[in-house]
Amino acid sequence: MHAAWGSATDCGPYRRLNEDALLAYPPLFVVADGMGGHDAGEVASRIAIEEASSLAGRPVVTADDVHVVVRAISARVREAVPAGRTVGTTFAGVGLATHDGGSYWLVFNIGDSRVYRFADGALSQISVDHSVVQELVDRGVIAPQEAHRHPDRHVITRAIGTGPDPDPDYWLLPVGSDDRMLVCSDGLTDELADDELAAVLADVADPQVAAEALVDAAVRRGGRDNVTAIVVDVATARSVDADSTAQGAERRAAAKPWDELSDGSTNPRASRARVPEVDR
Ligand code: MN
Questions:
Q1: How many domains does the chain have?
Q2: Is 152 within the bounds of a domain?
């Protein structure tokens, strides 16, 4: 198993603070989008990433590991919040997991940040938003294409920190030989349609360049919110070696053996996690 990844985040031209935060370190790739304004939203998302960092450097993660982290985030956010403020954070991402000797993506989500899989030239959204608009779409009240313009499109129905019991969704998907995963905040998907995300993921081989290209495109489109993207490529050595195109060569050059990054210990390596600056 080889992995390569890249990440980018931008405050955007209108917001004073970047309340998004991210972790991109195997086996975990997470985006947290804090809400609650100054001294609150960015604190909540930073707490989320600090807690998630406790899993960085492990060979694999389980849903139980992630659930322990989610509960810890919830407890710390609720403690840190000034009385009377509504503060919380989304938490969405993907981790490498194993099951019966096979490699799996563990996808998890609470809120409206998203996880997509790009495979065989097609983009599919794996996570399901916890939002008022998603509920209206599910009930057939509005069409999916109306969701973008709906006045309640930013109202989420689940988050960490806003209630006593955080309730994430989990999915376990077998890793495909050429999967490219995208984890992003709503600032990306508010500005760019799925076919625009897919075009960048198809055209830009290097995952760091792809993550930056996605964020730049969303900021140029308007950047009304903070924008964050993580792109993760995992390929078996065989599928990477078999790809004789220029993209295959680039992906080979960027890929690192997963096992060399994971030392097998369960010690937190938070210092190696990338946490974006929050006040720009
Ligand atoms: Mn946002």
A1: 1
A2: yes
Q: How far is the CA of 47 from the centre of ligand 1 (A)?
A: 16
By residue range, what is the domain housing residue 206?
Answer: 3-255
- Centre of ligand 1 from the C-alpha of residue 83, in Å: 23
DSSP states of the chain: -EEEEEEEEE--SS-SB--EEEEEETTEEEEEEEESSTTTHHHHHHHHHHHHGGGTT-S---HHHHHHHHHHHHHHHHHHSPTT---EE-EEEEEEEEETTEEEEEEEEESS-EEEEEETTEEEE-S---BHHHHHHHTTSS-GGGGGG-TTTT-BS--BSSSSS---EEEEEEPPTT-EEEEE-HHHHHHS-HHHHHHHHHH--SHHHHHHHHHHHHHHHT--S-EEEEEEEEE-HHHHHH--SHHHHHHHHH-EEHHHH--S-----GGGS----SB-
Using the mean position of ligand 1's atoms as its centre, give its distance from the Cα of residue 175 in Å: 28
**pLDDT digit string, tens, across residues 20-36:** 999 999 999 999 999 98
Structure pTM? Answer: 0.85
> Would you say residue 90 lies in a domain?
yes
The CATH number given to whatever domain includes residue 87 is 3.60.40.10
Over the stretch 155-213, which tens digit does the pLDDT of each residue have?
A: 999 999 988 789 899 999 999 988 999 999 999 999 999 999 999 999 999 999 999 99
Ligand 1 centroid distance, CA of 24 (Å): 18
Q: Is residue 196 part of a domain?
A: yes
CA of 37 to the centre of ligand 1 (A): 11
Q: How far apart are the CA of 204 and the centre of ligand 1, in A?
A: 24
* Ligand 1 geometric centre to CA of 138 (Å): 22
Residue-level pLDDT at 162? 87
Cα 187 to averaged position of ligand 1 atoms, centre (Å)? 5
